[in-house]
Structure formats: structure tokens, C-alpha cells
């Protein structure tokens, strides 16, 4: 037993910060602490330690020093050093919630010295208070013990320094005395901070919203008071009674990075009251009721019992595709094509090495015709052939004018890269009876197969929203794909984009560049578009602006350049759900010509949504450069809420009926600022699905 105590003591001493911040205090203070404050370290097996590598020993020693450095930084109130350590090490590596020999945690020291910035930084990292302080009395007793022990040690060292003659030992005792005097002042400051602290005020801005048909969400802010101690946790309580008697449940929130909580498992159509209270080292403060005072779990679909628009659609399409495949399985057109070009021999390639194979059928130069090019990129590098050119294959050398319908058909095919062979077999018909459209689309499928075979990759990526053209009659359909893996390939090299652009020898004039030159000049813009089009919105409810413009062969939709797969939008709130009561209010607003806003004093979810919409509409009008006075003629789309995966939802703001879609030759009365694109509607729909 004595051996075990000595080992525990040695480990406890090893964990103390070196230097003035802990001058051999561990031995005396540890011996005087009650058992409940002692740290029960598990002794190491000597044989196991001997078997560990020197690297592991050095690592553990380094982490012990990091833990000591954190305690010292907190005691010295060095916020920058604390933040640096929290960023450099994980909470586990720092032993963030392991008490030192005085029974204290870094958070205990921060809150009892009332250092709010350091306390908040520790709380954000997951720090907790010492579990040994089970009551106010136990914390007060422990602080008194630390102060008394430190004072006693200061008196002893003072007497020794005064009575001893100057020598080396005396000089060492003077250093210890200064250190203990500093620690004595620290403990007194901690004790005074605890004694003068009071329970926290109630949290502020406690807002309650409906999260779904079975849950509500409460968000809140810290108490406004700066005189009380740092808040370390919150308690959320809910009940069906405004008096909160009886309580239906409660939850304690000690992870304070985001001050919100979702109460789940509730009954749809039942009113729930919620209140929140804060806690510091002096105890729980008074509760604060939410605004609005209650919420009823519901969803806008319950207003008319509407089923989700996309429910079962993906499964139905998969089933339909399976049926089509079954029908075509024994069809004559499903037989392998016999008259395949010789270049198809390369389609069995399973790697990228054919990019640099002398027999590759990638084109060096363009003639008048339609071509397919695949842009594969990784970071700032792009994949090229052995002739330092992006991979290009021919679709049709007699096709000099790409019809929009053919291009849009190609973009749909890009959703089925794995099914190209099957599609080819289905489209294969006798050339004599084949229409021009089918011939062109069959050649597109052949070109895709050739590109897949030469690259050894089926997924060619996303089709850029418009082809690249030149005055010589060349048309390039461009696909873009980012390679995120670190996989390396033999005989393949990635060329920096800037190097490819500067080293390429152009055969065209600057006034009339070829399609390939135009592609390389604008390749960074296309890669930026591809990356931005894959970004996702954060969860929440958004207000989107629907603006279309029509041409002879297509309809285009206005989108922001920074997020081209989403309509122009602003965020209304973080909660994506529209409750039944909110949707009912929106229906009433849409049914009258001059809506009367709810009174500002009304503490209802409908009034809160009204205020949020007012802010969002002003922000959206500024974004798309529309005078606010003209927004009075705009309408909210009241047929449904657009739902994207349950985490993102949209309300649509529509221009007047005559201005939703601008016809060819018609002046657009609303000209957006720079930073917007107009995409073909079908391209936008595909990007939205991705």
C-alpha cells in the first residue's frame, strides 16, 4: 500500500507545472487533501514500460509537459498561450479534464479567477468543472485549505530565509518563497472570486421554433450580466403546462459551442412550453421562458395532408429503367455492334497509361466538326496526353452546328456513364432508317465509349453548361471531373495548368482563337464553376428568387456564380421546417390583396416568421439589384415549400406574372448586379439533383 501511494505521489508531482507556478507544492498539499480530491492514477507496470519504445516515452513526457503548460498558462491568465495549446493538442492529449494534485481543473482556475475569455475558450474545447465539488460548502472548504496551506508554507520559508546565513541553499529558498507568495496570492484571488460570485441571471433571447412534426428547437444566448461568474452549463425544461408542473423532461447542455437544443419524441398537435436556466459555480439561476411561450410540433404538409413531392420517385425511376432493360435484353438491337471502328480495341484499357501510348486515338488538331474533351484535374494540375494536350475525341466531323436539344440530351446521358454500352446497343439501328438526330446521338455514345476506353475511366464527370465554339466551325463539349485521391499511375504525369497554358503553341490568331485555345484560356473559370456547383447549402430555410428568360430553343434561369446549382437566395433562418400554423398564415397572406402584418407585440411564430421574411426580402432585393419599392408587386409562391433532403427548404419569391420569364427581344426590367449566370433550365435541374 505504501509503495502504491509513493507511485501515485510521484506521478502527481510529475504532472505539476515546473518553475514558479508550482514550487514543490504537490507533496505538502497532496498529503493534506481529503481522499475525494486525490487523483487515482493507475500505476504503470515496470515490465510494460521497459518494453515500450523510446519514441512512446518521449511522446508521453511531451504530453505531460503540455498539460503542465496549460495549467501554467491558465494560472498566469495567458489567453494567447491557452488558445495555442488548445489548437495544437486534442483534449485527450492535454488531459483537459484530469485534476491536478490540488484537485483542480484548468476550468476551475479560470472561473474562480473570473477570467471569462479563458473560461470560454476552455468550454469551447470541452473542458468541465471538477466533479469533486459536489456542493458550495465543499468548494469553499477546499479553497480555504489551499489558502491555509500556502500561507503556512510562506511563513515557514520566510523564517528560514531570515534566520539562515546567505548561501546557495538560502538562494534556493528565496526562489521558493517568491513562488509560494505568488501561489498564495492566486489562491486568495480564487477564494475571493468564489465568495463574491452570485448565481447567473437568466439566459437571453430564448426562442422556440417548430423543428418537425415530433420536435421543437430552442435557441438562446448567454445572460447579459457581467458581474456573475462564467456560465458553464444550461438546463432546458419542457412541459405541457405554462406553470411547468408537472415537468415532462429536462436536459443539461454542457457543450457550449452552439447554444441550441432540439427536444424530440413529442406528440404532433400538442402545445409544449419551454424554459431555460443557466448554471455557474454558485448554482442554477432563474429560468427564462421562451418566445413564443409554447410551440406545437407540426409540418406545413399537415395543412392539407399533402404527401412529399419526391416520395418514391427515385425508386420508381429505377424500377422503370429495370423494366426497359428487361424488354431490350433479347432485342435484336441489343446484339453487339459488328462494324465498330478499329480504335475501339483500346476500350479494354483499364488504366490511364494509354494517355501516353503512341497508338492513342486522341486528336492533335481540330477540323470542322463536333468533339468531346474530358478535363481531369487535381489541385492546380490537369491531365494531358503524351502530346501535352487535353484528351479530345471526335464525335462527328460533318456536324458544324450543335442543336441545343442534342446538347441537352448529352447532359442527361452524363447521369448514366455506367450505362453507355447498353445505351449504344439500344440506339443501334440500320443507318438507312436512322434519322439525323439518332445518328448524331449514336455518334455521341460512340465518342463517350472511346473516351472511356482510352482513359480507362467510366465516370467522365459533369458536363459544362455550354459548349466551346470557334469561328472555324469547331464545337467542343466539355466534361469536368476532380480527382481527389492520391493514387498514382505509371507513365502518367499531371501538368500544372499555368505551364500548359504558357507552353502551348497556338496556331490561331488572338482575334480568332480555336476552340481548344479558348478552352485553355478559360479553363480556370470552368474548373471554378465545377467546384462551386458541387457546394451544398448549410441547413436552414431560404428565400429564393425565380427569374427566367426564354430564347428560341431554350429557357434559362438566373443563378449566382458562387453557387450555380441553386437559385439566387438569402437565408431566412437556421430551422428549415415550416410549421402548420406558419403555412396557414402564409396562405391567408397570399389570399388577400393588401396583407395586414401581425402586430409587433404578438409573440407568435407567425409574427416571428413575418419579421424574418421582411429582413430576407430586403436583403434579396439588394442582392439582385431590384429597388425595394418594386418588391410590393412580387409574390411568394404559396403552393408548396421546396424541400431538399429535409435539411434545406426554400420559399420562392416571384416577380409579377408578366415578368417571371423574359421573352426574346423583351427588355429585362430587373438587371442583376455582376456575379450572376443564366443556365439552361435542364442544366440547372441536373446540377440541382447532383
From TrEMBL:
SUPFAM superfamilies per the UniProt record, alphabetical: Ankyrin repeat, Fibronectin type III
Pfam family, one: fn3
Fibronectin type-III domain sequence ranges: 202-299
InterPro entries reported in the protein's UniProt record: ANKFN1, Ankyrin_rpt-contain_sf, FN3_dom, FN3_sf, Ig-like_fold
Region named Disordered: 1-26
Lineage summary: Eukaryota, Metazoa, Chordata, Craniata, Vertebrata
UniProt GO cellular component terms: spindle
PANTHER family per UniProt: ANKYRIN REPEAT AND FIBRONECTIN TYPE-III DOMAIN-CONTAINING PROTEIN 1-LIKE, WIDE AWAKE
Record protein name field: ANKF1 protein
PROSITE patterns cross-referenced by the UniProt entry: FN3
One example of a Gene Ontology biological process annotation: establishment of mitotic spindle orientation
Amino acid at each position: 500500500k505504501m509503495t502504491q501511494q509513493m507511485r501515485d505521489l510521484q506521478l502527481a508531482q510529475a504532472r505539476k507545472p515546473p518553475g514558479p507556478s508550482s514550487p514543490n507544492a504537490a507533496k505538502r498539499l497532496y498529503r493534506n487533501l481529503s481522499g475525494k480530491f486525490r487523483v487515482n492514477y493507475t500505476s504503470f507496470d515496470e515490465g510494460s514500460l521497459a518494453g515500450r519504445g523510446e519514441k512512446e516515452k518521449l511522446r508521453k513526457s511531451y504530453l505531460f509537459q503540455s498539460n503542465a503548460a496549460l495549467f501554467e498558462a491558465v494560472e498566469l491568465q495567458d489567453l494567447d498561450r491557452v488558445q495555442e495549446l488548445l489548437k495544437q493538442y486534442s483534449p485527450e492529449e492535454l488531459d483537459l479534464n484530469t485534476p491536478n494534485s490540488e484537485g483542480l481543473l484548468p476550468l476551475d482556475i479560470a472561473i474562480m479567477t473570473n477570467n471569462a475569455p479563458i473560461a470560454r475558450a476552455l468550454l469551447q474545447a470541452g473542458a468541465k468543472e471538477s466533479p469533486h465539488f459536489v456542493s458550495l460548502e465543499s468548494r469553499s472548504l477546499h479553497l480555504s485549505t489551499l489558502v491555509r496551506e500556502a500561507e503556512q508554507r510562506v511563513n515557514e520559508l520566510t523564517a528560514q530565509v531570515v534566520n539562515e546565513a546567505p548561501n546557495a541553499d538560502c538562494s534556493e529558498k528565496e526562489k521558493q518563497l517568491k513562488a509560494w507568495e505568488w501561489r498564495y496570492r492566486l489562491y486568495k484571488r480564487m477564494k475571493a472570486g468564489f465568495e463574491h460570485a452570485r448565481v447567473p441571471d437568466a439566459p437571453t433571447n430564448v426562442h422556440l421554433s417548430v423543428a418537425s412534426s415530433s420536435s421543437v428547437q430552442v435557441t438562446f444566448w448567454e445572460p447579459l450580466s457581467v458581474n456573475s461568474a462564467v456560465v458553464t452549463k444550461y438546463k432546458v425544461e419542457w412541459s405541457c403546462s405554462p406553470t411547468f408542473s408537472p415537468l415532462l423532461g429536462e436536459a443539461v447542455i454542457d457543450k457550449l459551442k452552439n447554444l441550441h437544443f432540439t427536444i424530440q419524441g413529442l406528440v404532433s398537435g400538442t402545445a409544449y412550453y419551454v424554459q431555460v436556466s443557466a448554471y455557474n459555480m454558485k448554482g442554477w439561476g432563474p429560468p427564462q421562458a421562451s418566445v413564443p411561450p409554447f410551440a406545437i410540433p407540426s409540418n406545413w404538409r399537415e395543412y392539407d395532408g399533402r404527401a412529399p413531392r419526391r416520395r418514391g420517385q427515385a425508386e420508381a425511376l429505377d424500377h422503370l429503367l429495370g423494366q426497359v432493360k428487361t424488354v431490350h435484353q433479347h432485342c435484336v438491337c441489343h446484339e453487339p455492334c459488328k462494324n465498330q471502328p478499329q480504335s475501339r480495341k483500346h476500350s479494354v484499357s483499364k488504366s490511364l497509361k494509354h494517355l501516353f501510348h503512341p497508338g492513342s486515338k486522341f486528336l492533335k488538331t481540330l477540323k470542322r466538326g463536333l468533339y468531346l474533351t474530358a478535363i481531369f484535374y487535381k489541385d492546380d494540375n490537369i491531365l494531358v496526353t503524351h502530346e501535352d494536350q487535353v484528351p479530345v475525341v471526335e464525335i462527328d466531323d460533318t456536324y458544324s452546328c450543335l442543336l441545343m436539344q442534342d446538347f441537352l440530351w448529352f447532359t442527361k446521358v452524363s447521369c448514366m456513364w455506367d450505362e453507355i454500352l447498353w445505351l449504344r446497343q439500344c440506339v443501334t439501328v440500320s443507318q438507312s432508317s436512322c434519322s439525323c438526330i439518332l445518328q448524331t446521338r449514336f455518334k455521341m455514345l460512340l465518342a463517350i465509349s472511346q473516351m472511356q476506353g482510352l482513359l480507362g475511366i467510366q465516370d467522365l464527370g459533369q458536363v459544362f453548361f455550354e459548349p466551346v465554339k470557334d469561328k472555324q466551325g469547331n464545337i467542343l463539349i466539355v466534361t469536368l471531373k476532380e480527382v481527389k485521391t492520391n493514387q498514382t499511375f505509371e507513365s502518367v504525369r499531371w501538368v500544372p495548368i499555368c505551364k500548359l497554358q504558357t507552353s502551348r503553341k497556338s496556331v490561331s490568331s488572338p482575334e480568332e482563337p480555336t476552340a481548344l485555345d479558348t478552352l485553355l484560356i478559360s479553363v480556370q473559370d470552368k474548373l471554378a464553376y465545377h467546384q462551386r456547383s458541387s457546394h451544398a447549402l448549410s441547413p436552414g430555410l431560404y428565400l429564393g428568387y425565380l427569374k427566367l428568360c426564354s430564347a428560341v430553343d431554350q429557357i434559362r434561369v438566373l443563378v449566382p456564380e458562387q453557387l450555380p446549382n441553386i437559385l439566387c437566395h438569402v437565408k431566412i433562418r437556421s430551422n428549415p421546417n415550416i410549421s402548420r400554423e406558419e403555412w396557414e398564415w402564409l396562405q391567408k397572406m397570399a389570399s388577400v390583396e393588401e396583407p395586414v402584418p401581425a402586430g409587433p407585440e404578438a409573440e407568435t411564430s407567425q409574427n416571428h416568421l413575418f419579421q424574418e421574411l421582411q429582413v430576407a426580402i430586403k436583403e434579396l432585393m439588394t442582392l439582385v439589384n431590384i429597388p425595394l419599392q418594386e418588391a410590393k408587386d412580387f409574390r411568394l409562391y404559396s403552393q408548396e415549400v421546396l424541400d431538399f433532403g429535409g435539411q434545406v427548404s426554400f420559399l420562392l419569391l416571384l416577380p409579377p406574372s408578366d415578368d417571371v420569364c423574359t421573352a426574346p427581344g423583351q427588355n429585362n426590367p430587373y438587371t442583376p448586379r455582376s456575379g450572376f449566370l443564366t443556365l439552361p433550365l435542364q442544366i440547372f435541374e441536373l446540377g440541382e439533383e447532383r
